[in-house]
């Protein structure tokens, strides 16, 4: 039995419960919307989405859903 790996798995489980340890800086996610999949990107506090609503308003349900999911793990831009 690899006790070193067991120790690492236990540490990983503990870390996964401590969300404040993690800060995302950049990523791309595909969100399956009601009509089409949408590409959402996050880069150092800036969201972009390829949906029409985002392009007209600067925020959309796809970016806001990811903000909810990643609460405490990303920088949320100030409301203008």
Descriptive keywords:
3 helices; alpha+beta; single chain; 80 residues
Report on the structure:
The chain is an alpha+beta fold and 80 residues long. It has one domain (21-80). The chain is built from 3 helices and 3 strands. It has helices at residues 3-17, 52-57, 61-69; strands spanning 26-32, 37-43, 46-49. It has a 3-stranded antiparallel beta sheet. A hairpin with a 2-residue loop joins strand 2 (37-43) and strand 3. 10% of the residues are buried. The model has no long low-confidence stretch (mean pLDDT 90).
What Rg is obtained from the alpha carbons, in whole angstroms?
Answer: 17 Å
Number of helices: 3
What number is the mean pLDDT? 90
> What number of domains?
1
What class would the helix/strand composition place it in? Answer: alpha+beta
Number of strands: 3
Ends distance: 56 Å
The rough form would be described as elongated
Q: Helices and strands, in N-to-C order?
A: HEEEHH
Strands side by side in the biggest sheet: 1-2-3
Low-confidence stretches: none
Q: Topology, please?
A:
Elements: H1 3-17, E1 26-32, E2 37-43, E3 46-49, H2 52-57, H3 61-69
Antiparallel strand pairs: 1-2, 2-3
Question: In brief, what are we looking at here?
Answer:
By secondary structure, the chain is α+β, with helices and mostly antiparallel strands. It has helices spanning 3-17, 52-57, 61-69, and strands spanning 26-32, 37-43, 46-49.
């Amino acid at each position: 039995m690899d006790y070193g790996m067991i120790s690492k798995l236990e540490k990983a489980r503990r870390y996964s419960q401590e969300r404040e340890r993690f800060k995302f800086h950049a990523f791309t996610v595909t969100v399956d919307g009601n009509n089409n999949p949408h590409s959402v990107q996050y880069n150092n506090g800036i969201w972009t989405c390829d949906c029409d609503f985002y392009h007209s308003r600067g925020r959309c349900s796809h970016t806001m859903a990811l903000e909810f999911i990643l609460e405490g793990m990303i920088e949320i831009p100030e409301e203008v």
